[in-house]
Amino acid sequence: MSDEHILVVDDDPRLLRLLQRYLSENGYRVSTALDAGSAREVLARIQPDALVLDVTMPGEDGLSLTNSLRRDGLSLPILLLTARGEPADRIGGLEAGADDYLGKPFEPRELLLRLRAHLRRVVPSLPAVNELPETLRLGELEFDIKRGLLSGPEGPVHLTGGEAALLGVLTSQPGTVLSREAIARALDMDEIGERAVDVQVTRLRRRIEVDPKEPRFLHTVRGKGYVLKPGR
């Protein structure tokens, strides 16, 4: 049995039972909730490693709950489930603070693979660690490239899985302009589109920039993409 604990929130009891059984059979501890209120009660008692959350629930919906949890500083991976699978809906989920978005109906195997990827927080397309410096400075912040951890004068800076993955991709080639297409491919966002990259960049700037509207480190290169320029 894995030590990793998944909270699944959906107003469909049948789907909850299916996912609880499937994820348990694949080694995870699983808690469930039927709505946002019940999810908050569970989160007050435990600290899960990831959250699988239905968007279209009665009462407080999944987007609102995601937004609220992010404002409260919760940094665990959040994967949204919804019958609305259009790119605009997925981007809305990312803007709310989710790390991933899976349209219904879906294969449980795909959910499992996405969860594993986010729980590992693997940064794709990185060069070998020995080709990179151990850390990069972003003003008062320091990013540990090998561990994927960002810290500042007051301690760790909590990043979502998507934010950490994006920062890892950018720090793999500091000073190099990376196209939106290349970043989307590295982050496995091809099917959502390059607009999703812009959303993640906006979120990351809120973490690393003193003034996200006047970025010092994460720059937009018009018509080309983004470049990270570390410094003090």
TrEMBL record:
GO terms for biological process: regulation of DNA-templated transcription. This is DNA-binding response regulator. The lineage of its organism: Bacteria, Pseudomonadati, Pseudomonadota, Alphaproteobacteria, Acetobacterales. The keyword Phosphoprotein applies. The keyword Isomerase does not apply. The modification 4-aspartylphosphate is found at D54. CDD domains: REC_OmpR, trans_reg_C. Residues 5-119 form the Response regulatory domain. InterPro entries: CheY-like_superfamily (IPR011006), OmpR/PhoB-type_DNA-bd (IPR001867), Sig_transdc_resp-reg_C-effctor (IPR016032), Sig_transdc_resp-reg_receiver (IPR001789), WalR-like (IPR039420), WH-like_DNA-bd_sf (IPR036388). Residues 133-230 form the OmpR/PhoB-type domain. One of its GO terms (molecular function) is transcription cis-regulatory region binding. One of its GO terms (cellular component) is protein-DNA complex. Keywords: DNA-binding, Phosphoprotein, Transcription, Transcription regulation, Two-component regulatory system. Pfam families: Response_reg, Trans_reg_C. Residues 133-230 bind DNA.
